[in-house]
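pasting for the record
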Amino acid sequence: MKRVIAVAVLMMGVAGMPAYAADENNVAAGLTAAGAPLGLHGVDPVAFIDIGNRVEGSAKYTAVHNGVAYYFQNEENKAKFEKSAKKYTPQNGGFCTFGVSVGKKFDGDPQYADVVDGKLYVFLNEDIYKEYQKNPKKTISTAKKQWKKIEHTAATAL
């Protein structure tokens, strides 16, 4: 009986914890050495936004924000991120912006990305990215509205 109560108490504690990254962020399966799943496919978001380069980060320079681990090219980029994480995290939780605009959560591949007004938007693949380029303002605007509706919904439920 004591064991059942102990398990119930532990489960209540877990149930009350925030579920960062579970539904709100596009992350890799499994955990990094930092104990959180990897976001943005390991690409350095600071390098993307500040210098416009898609640069692979290193696990040596890892920061965790809202339950998601991000890799950086160097300590300087990691420090910038830690100071202003909201500025550097990808929009729509790192899900494909075009997908979000139609109410879906598709993988966001940083190989297909755009920085608009200092914000990073990622896309599923080249074809989707080309479709987005036909009307980026409309896609981003629609995605912002849709994200408010689907942010806390599992991708599999959409």
